[in-house]
Structures are given as C-alpha cells and as structure tokens.
Fold these 3 entries.
Entry 1:
Amino acid sequence: MVTWLAQTTAIWSWVLRNLVAVTVLVAFLVGGASPANAGFDDGIAAYNRGDFSLALKEWTPLAEKGEARAQVILATMYMDGLGVAKAPKTAMQWLVLAAKQGHVRAQTYLAYLYEDGYAEAPNLSQAHMWLKIAAARGDPLAALNLNRISKKLSPAERNVSEQRALEWLMDHREPSAEPPPVGIPGSPGSDPVWSPRKRRLE
C-alpha cells in the first residue's frame, strides 16, 4: 500500500516537473504585502490574461532591482519559455538570486532543480543545503523532502552541507534572534488559490 508520504512526494515531484510555472507563481505570494512598485501587480494581471511579454516587461526591472518575488517569476518564465525563449541557465540565475535573498519557496525549488540537474550537472550537496535552510525556515515541502535527499549523501557530504546551511541561517537571522533550529520546520503559511482550469490566481 502506498503511504501518504510517498503519495505526497510523488505529487510534488510531478508538479515540479510539469507545472513549475504554476507552483512557483503561487508560492512567491505567500504572506506578502503588495510591493511598493505597482508594476508588480500589473505583471500579475498581464500574466493571468496570458500576456506574458507584458508581464516580463513589468517584472524584469523589479527583478533587476532585487525584488525576490519578481526574480522567482522570471525564473519560471525562462524555464517554460513564457514571453521569452527558454533559457535554463538564466532561469537558475534568477532563482539563485531569490534564494540567496531568503525567499523560502525559491530555496526549496532551487533544491529540486539542483537534484534534477536542471541547468547543470546534478548537485545533491547543494540540493540538501537549500532544503535544510528552507525546512528550518518553515517550508513544509522542504521538510517533506529533506530526509529523502539526506539518504543520497554520504555522512561526510551531509555534514558539510548541514554546516553550510547553518552558516547561511546564522548569517541571515535577525540580530536579536536565537540560533536557527536547523531542520525543524515552523508553521506553514497559506497560499492563494490557483485555478488550474483557468490558469490564474484567484
């Protein structure tokens, strides 16, 4: 009998490989307030009506200025060729920028891409490190997949990856915060509802 964990893992694996544009677009909106630049919301409206070129035009300047959510969406668009030619390396570059800024879901999806060898050779150590970081910061998807990736690493590789994750977490914590609980996820947030038939956020 297939366990719930196996079913969930299989579902998210399928989502990543076939609907990464959908999942990343939903994920970047978790719990965030509207950005100061109205171009962000204009980009969402354009994306939802299928005007990907306009969406790209709205989001690119924001991403270049360091807006992590825009960086995540651009990564998605370059992955799927929405409004632009497919460019795996460019997609990875945008996702890395968002992950390094602390965008939790970007960290989780970046880990998946490192595992799969999306734009370069598979890198399980990097995948494990980013999952460890995202899990410690409360992403249930990262926590769900962390043990699976851990089993693919040698003890020495795992120790190095965990040390790098801890260093990242320490470097990015609030000055008054306690040391981060590596590997202990917090309470998950809630995503906006994605309508797969309408291919839009609601």
Entry 2:
Amino acid sequence: MPNASRITFSIPEILSQKHEECTSLGITAVRGDSVSSVAKFKRAYHTMNETWETEIGGLLAELAEVQTTLLTVLEEKRRLLVAGDQVALSAMATREQELAKRLQLCHDRRQHMLSQASDAGLPSESILSLSGCLPAESRNPLQASIREATSRSRLLQHQCLANWVLVQRSLLHLSQLIEIIATGGRMQPTYGKGSDRVAGGALVDQAA
C-alpha cells in the first residue's frame, strides 16, 4: 500500500472523492504550499460534512412541508371547483400566494447552495449530485428524501393539470350559459344565407 504521507491531493480533488475513498487512505491535504495534518483535515472534513448535511436536510424539510401543504390545498380547490363555490375559491387565493412565495424561497435557497458548492469545487449540477459527496450514513437518507420530493413534485404537476381542466370546463359551461341567455335559448345556425337573426335574447330583452 502506498505511503499515506506521500499522497497529496488538492481540497476539491479530495472532496470530490467518495467519503470511504478519502478516509481509507489517510490522505494529506494540500492547499497551495500549506500542508495540513491528516488529523486536522479529518476534523475539517467532518465539520464540512455536517454543514452540508444540515443545509441540504433543512432545505428538503422545508420543501416537503410546502409540497405537502400545497397538495392539500390543491385537493381542496378541486372539490370547490366541482362544487362551484366561488366564495371559498376566492378565499383560497391568499393561501396559494403564500405557498408560491415559500416555493420560490426554496428554489432560491437551492440555487444559493449549489453556487456555494461550485465555489468549493464540489458537484453542483443538482442537490442529488451534491449529496453524493457525503458519507453513506448521511447520503442515503438525504437521497431518499430527494426522491420523495421528486415524486411529490410530479404529483403536484398532475393535480395542477387536473384543476386546470376543471377550470376550462367551468369556463366552457359559463360560455354556453351566456349564449343561452343572450339568444333566448335559440342557437344561431352556423351556416345559412338570408336567415333571420334575432337582435337580442328573449331572456335579456323581456321585462321582468
């Protein structure tokens, strides 16, 4: 086995390795011309792991809470759309706006975290890739949470699409009602030359 004291890597090179690969070699860290002892490096590396684990875990916990709450709100909104409860739907606007702000904050926090990772020479393509630098006991639960967040995100997209379809159907129904009121229930022919056209609808023109 190579002499551990003669093995040197830059900090980004070390941190890009899997945790097991770094610790098993007893690597000496080099930053420019300054050499850190193995013990000092291990302490710093452990502190860095805890910092990233805390940051990623905090982001995922906040995201999970927002996603879960939003799923509940969307389900409630779907029921109100079916029931046609316009008053209750209007009252939900404030809750939806607040959740949208919280989601944006999660996005901004994620981007800032990945920017910091990039500056440190760590994987910064995604939170999943960044979590890959952590030791297995931290990495595995975090990546499980990431997969759960991805699953909830797909479910949110499905719920949003379902609600959008309901809104479009409501608008179509409303449009048909307006046409019935305006024409007195007499549908105008699509084709026809010289046919008599009603100037106004009976429901609109007749006095009460």
Entry 3:
Amino acid sequence: MRLITQNPTNLATLPESSNYSGKSSDDQTSTKKKFTILITEGPSCSFSSLSEILQSEDRVFLKTSSEKEALKLAQRKADIGLIVFDSASLSQTDYQAVKQLASNPLTKRIPVLLIARPGELENVIPENFGNQPVDFLLWPINNIMARAKVSLFEKSFLQEAELKQMQAQRDEANAQLQRTKDIATKLKTPVAGINGLVSLIRMNKEVLKIDDVQDKMSLLRSLTSNLSEMIASSFDTPENGSYEEPTSTGKIISKCISLLQAPSSISFKIESDLPIFKTKELKLQRIFQHLIDNAIKYTGKQQGLISIGVEDAGDFYRFYVKGKGAMKDNLKKNPESALNSLKSSVEEQGGKIWVEAVPGDGCKFMFLWKK
C-alpha cells in the first residue's frame, strides 16, 4: 500500500448519474482512452458527491451498491482503471472483495481507493490487499487531495494502456517479419534451382548457337541472382547494422534499369551527382527497383521519360523518380498504393515516402533516406 499525491486539476460539476462521463453522449466518439472509475457506495462513500468531485472530461463513472457486485463488474469490464470502496463496508466482510480482486489475474492490477474514517485505518491489515495497488482518502473527503490521488492513478492507467498498445503493434510487426522470412525461406530453393538450370543451359554449346540465347541466359541469370539477394535481404532486421556497406547510388539505379528491361519507347534521365555513402544497399536497391518498375509500368508503351535524381535535405537524401507519360492517369485513383510495400523500409531509416502529381508532367515519387 502506498500514498500517492499529485497537483490537483481544475474540475467542474456534473449532474448526478449512475453512469456518465465528462462529455455528452454526442461527444463520446473521442479516440482518447477513457478512465473508468467504479464507485461502491457505503456510509462514507456517496456516488453522487464523489463523482462530482472527481469529474473530468475523459472519465467515466460506474456505480455499484455492494462489494460483490463490484467484483463481478471488475471481472467483466477490462477498461476499469480504479475501484473505490467504503472501508467500513469492507471491514464487515473481512475484506473478502479486495482479497478476491488481488487473487484474480483479471483484476489484481486494478488500483483500489479506500474511503475511511480516521478510526477505521487501525483495522486495515496490509496482508488483505496482497500486491493490489491501494491508497486511502480520509472522510470527510478533502476535494484537492481526492483529485490529486485519482489523477495519479489515471496517469498510470493511461501510460500502461499506451505501453500495451505499443506492445501489440510490436508483436504484429514481428509477426509480419516472421511471415516474410517464412516466404523468403520457401523461395530460396526454387530460385537456386533456376540458377542451376540456367548454368546447365549455358554449358550446352548447341543451345547457345541459337540467336540471342547467350544474352537471354545472361539476363535470366542476372535476374535470378538479384532475386536471391533480395530474398537474403529480407532476413535483415532494423536492429542489425552489420548490413551497411559503401553504396553507389548510380550503380544501383543502372542495375535496376538493366534488370527491368524497359521498352525502347521509354528513355531515362539520371543525374550525374548521385551520392556514394554507407547504407543498406539491398534495401535501397529494392526501393529504386520498385519505383522504377512502377514508372515503366504506368508509362506503358507510349513515349515517356523517367527522371531519377537526388536533392539535399539536411540529414537525409531526398531521392526522386519522376515519370513523364501515362503515370498520372493510372495512379490518379490511388497513388499511395504503389508505396505501401516500401514504407517500412524507408521509415526504418527515419525517412518517409510519398508521391506528388506534377502538372502536365506525370508523377514524382520521392523518399527520404538517411545519409
């Protein structure tokens, strides 16, 4: 059991009710998490007066008339952040309600606030509460002290809720990463098989006499080797910095263009001052390959120009891939769809990725990449 104090907040009054919050029902759609206080009425604990004292914009108050009812409600509702008991009523049942709260995995972390008269504190036995967070308010209630104690319970509740949400998001990200690794693992064997088959074909002199076969086999070998590298990069994690290496952006872009085999109707304009810096090369290559591939796809077979370059943005490079042709019309309905699969890799570097329409000149894809 511990005494908690905090600077009080300014509070207004509300009409008496058995279940209400600081906002009208029309305003209950706020995304901010509510702090629910369960008040068990007793000789020293009046629901109407206590809820009026503690009223705040993002609080909800529930009323019970017995400890048994409070226990059942606490087990059913996972969002209760504080339970208020009358100490005199608890002592009559040998604190059975609190003991059951402390022993139940669903309720053992819910803080308890006791309203007690001075003489009743002598009968409070700490062992009755186990590890349950407990605090006291002396009757008659000091409004400032009551608000301060409850505000601290509320702050702790909201911080814990935020941590749980972050944990859930991290678990989902880890699950997604594991699914990606599982897929990559399954792809490694067939890709290795294709590589081996290509090598065998290239060793057959009769096959190589056919026009363009040598060039086509070289291209296929290059494509499968690149796919193998991309699969290997999927096992990289944000926490592992050992995959960073000196990287030539110009060479990456040239490699992507060579692999993607754009139609002859599409030409490329590449800046000459592209940076060479230490980064995760395969991840940067994946982003450029995806953006250039989209630019080629949405430009189609008509005449088009794809411009690729970089701009200085402080601690970041702002790379861009700009397509002149049919890109704007094809991406008009949902331009972000082409970027969703790349967001995690870019945001891992602390950057962001987006697309802008260039009037009369297609679309410009941009992303920030840490220098």
